[in-house]
Amino acid sequence: MATRRRQRFIYAQTAWMVAAVVGLSLLGALSLELFFVVSLIGFLIVVELTAPFSVTPEWRSRLRWIVLIGLAGFAYIVVRRVLAILPEGVL
């Protein structure tokens, strides 16, 4: 059964992602890439704001892998955007 802190973490991340969808929709900028980036930023913020001071539960140690996968996805998006901006023949 999920602990209270884990449930609070999940609720915070879910609220952030719903707010991201609503905010990007209202701005007319909803795309999968932007949603991913905004959700990743929110995930990193929620991870830091809910971090315990003394003892780290086992489930929080698994978040490191999610952060690494998210940062790899972010790097992929950045590389794609940079390659799209560069003129032909530069690379």
TrEMBL record:
The keyword Membrane applies. It comes from the Archaea. Keywords: Membrane, Transmembrane, Transmembrane helix. The chain crosses the membrane at residues 9-28, 34-53, 65-86. This is Uncharacterized protein.
